[in-house]
Structure formats: C-alpha cells, structure tokens
Amino acid sequence: METPDNATDAAAAADSATEAPTGIAAQDWATAAAEPTYRAAVVDLLGALAYGELAAFERLAEDAKLAPTLADKAELAKMASAEFHHFEQLTGRLAEIGAEPTEAMEPFVAALDGFHRQTAPSDWLEGLVKAYVGDSIASDFYREVAARLDSDTRELVLAVLDDTGHASFAVEKVRAAIEADPRVGGRLALWARRLMGEALSQSQRVVADRDALSTMLVGGVADGFDLAEVGRMFSRITEAHTKRMAALGLAA
Amino acid sequence: METPDNATDAAAAADSATEAPTGIAAQDWATAAAEPTYRAAVVDLLGALAYGELAAFERLAEDAKLAPTLADKAELAKMASAEFHHFEQLTGRLAEIGAEPTEAMEPFVAALDGFHRQTAPSDWLEGLVKAYVGDSIASDFYREVAARLDSDTRELVLAVLDDTGHASFAVEKVRAAIEADPRVGGRLALWARRLMGEALSQSQRVVADRDALSTMLVGGVADGFDLAEVGRMFSRITEAHTKRMAALGLAA
C-alpha cells in the first residue's frame, strides 16, 4: 500500500507530528480511549480500514483472473494475500479493544462495495491502475490521519500501510504498456480521473454518515484538525495523485 | 512395503512407508533426482500441486463473494490466503531444484481450469461442498503418492496438505443447512457426484498427457505402484469420498 515518491507531503506531516507529539498523539491507547468519542472514532477508523483490506483482497483476487501470464497472476495473488494479513491484524486489534469486528466494518460495506462496483476494471491494465491509484490515495489519507492518533493505534495503522509491492509492480507494467502503445495512456488517464472522482464521492458519503470519525477529522476530539486543515489535507492528497499520474506517464 | 496386502488404505500405506522405507522412499532428493525420469516426475507433481493451490486460491476468493455474512466471507478469505502460502512453498521448492515454476505449472492449467469451469458453484453451499470434496480428494491422492516419494519431496508434499480448516468449517455449515431444510441434502448429493465425476475425468486427461508422472504412478520409476495398485488406490479414494459424504448427511 506504499508509493515510492508521493508521500513527501504526507510523510512530512506525519514526521512533524512524530517529532513533537502533543495532545492525543502523545497518549497511548489506554489513556486516549478514556474519552468515549475518541474510542468510537478509532473503532470506526479500524473498521473502515479492515473492510477496505478485505475488499482489496477480493478485488485483487478477481483481477488475478485478468492476468496475461501465470507469473502476473501469482503476483496479484501475493498482493491479495498480503491484504488479507492486514485485515487479520486490524480485526485482531478491534477484538483486542473489545469491539466486534463485523459490527465495526458493517457501516463501511456500502461505500466500499459501491466504489468497487462503480469502478470494475474492464481489463488487466485498468485493474493495475486502480490498485495503484486506490492504494496510494488510501495510504496518503491514513498517513495523514495516523499523525493525529494515539501512539498504539498509530503504530498499527502505519504497519498495515506498509508496502505490499503493488506500486512498483503496477508502475512497471503500466509504463511498459504505454511505451508499446502510447494511445493506451489517454484511456488510462481518463480511467484514473474517474477513480479519483468516485473515491472522493464515496468518502463524502462516509464522512456525512459517521459522526465520531468526522468529528475526529475536523478537530473535535483529536487535536490538530480544523475544517481549513481538512481542506489542505485533501489538496495534498490530490496533488500527490497528480504527481503520481505524471510519473506514470498519465496526465491526471 | 509395496506388497499390496498391507496397503489397505492411504494411511496404512503412508505409515508403512514411514516405518520401513525402501527404494526411492528411502532416498533423499539429491540421490533420487540423479534418475532423470524421477526428477521429471517430481517437477510434474510439484507443478500440478502448485497450480492446484493457485486455482484453489482463486476459487475460494471467488466463493467468498457468495458468503452470506461478513464473518463467512472473512473465513473463506483466510482459507484462500492459506492456499496461497502453500503455492509459495511449492513454487519456492521448484525454483530451489532448478525448475522454472511457470513452466512446471503450465501443463496442468488446462485440466484444472477445465475442472473449475465445469463445476462453478451456483450458491454458497455448493461452493462449500466443492471446497470440501475437492480438497479431500486431492489430499487423499497426494498422500498416496507421497509414500512413494523421496524423503525431502515427501516432507514438503505432506506439509502443504496440512488442514487449512476447510473441512470442519464446511462440514458444520452444510450440516446446519441440511438440518434446516432436508431437501437441500438431495441437491447437494447430486452436486457432489458431479464433482467426483468431473475430477476423475480431468485426472485421466492429466495421466494420459504426462508421461513421467504416469510412469511414476504405475511403478516405472518410483517403486511400489503397478496398474492393479493404481486401481486399488482409486478404489480407496472413492471409498473415502463415499464415507465423507455419508458423514456429511449426503448419500454419495
């Protein structure tokens, strides 16, 4: 779920928070969770992330069928399996803090299934671009949020966002395809824009529905976020997306 | 140990081989592989097993979509991930002995894809019965063959056949469904018969195509197998299938 060169801004945000943690970021889970709204927000976050991993597992396993060679198929199956292990870590953590994993995931099923239904890739390259774009955006977002979490939750969130190898695999394959046939680039650039639009629209749906999570994002409980800051966060994520697409040979 | 009399079932065959290994079963890989036909047969076997695991991964990931609950979906994803790790062990071993994993798997793609295409489950219960029947038959077969392999290959083959938890999960769910609606039993019994028929027909296709593997099975290189013994082996496997179906509440 990592991307090679995108995360400079997000990483900088995370770094500065790591250097001088204050408020919730300076607390461990036991201390921070004493505040029920914060606890609810973290259960939401872990539930969303867990179902995201399970949905990513399914998507990658499905895309493996489109693979042109056995080696490509094996590579996608490997990524799917890595997502599944993240899923296990996240549901394990939910159980550990006394939350029922299924209940925690349930509120995010509709949005994530909706996203995947609206953006079913029609071929192998669209699948690769989707894996790359989707994971990169998710990764940027969670890295931004991680900086505002208690130390224990932050550690888990950053661990499951570790590179599963999608990025370099997808980038290499997509670049080779564009080199072989430049017209492919135009089609995939349109596709990447559609993915970004659909991701934003589903995110808004989640933000509108989930009070605790949204409150945390706009600075109600976890410190450091206000509405202007949320706007800046979305700008950073969109900018990172644009840079990634350019690096891939696609105008975003 | 290769006298037919004491090979009453797969377990006995495997046990007696472990107790007093002779011929190839008493050798390690380095010694046994000096014979090129044996080496080719093992590459075939590992290739078939590896692609079987990759295909099982895909099938389980696909069936996860039919799961009635999030918990069931997670359970199937877990099994799929376990199959993938077996796939990694097998392709790792192929690479270790100097065989190209993709080339080793290629000859078995058509038969295994054909089996899965002919037996796409139409609902969640058919998927569970298929996972259970398919894995049990494959497991019986490989256990029979394992007794005739060199010690290093035998160890690997038995390790990847370890229970991934399919059996108890499937048995529990299928039993509960039949209890709730006994008519389900008749439908699933027919389905299990179709699976067995299709598995046998695809196995024959493989046996007819792959000289080295077939020669090993009928006693050309690895000792202990002759045509009559192969017949008995298929009887044992079919008998074990019948017992399993009865235990599941299905007349086979």
From TrEMBL, chains A, B:
Pfam families from the UniProt entry: MiaE_2 (PF13794)
Annotated coiled-coil segments of the chain: none
Highest taxon of the lineage: Bacteria
Residue ranges annotated for the Ferritin-like domain, each copy included: 37-220
Name recorded for this polypeptide: tRNA 2-methylthio-N6-isopentenyl adenosine(37) hydroxylase MiaE-like protein
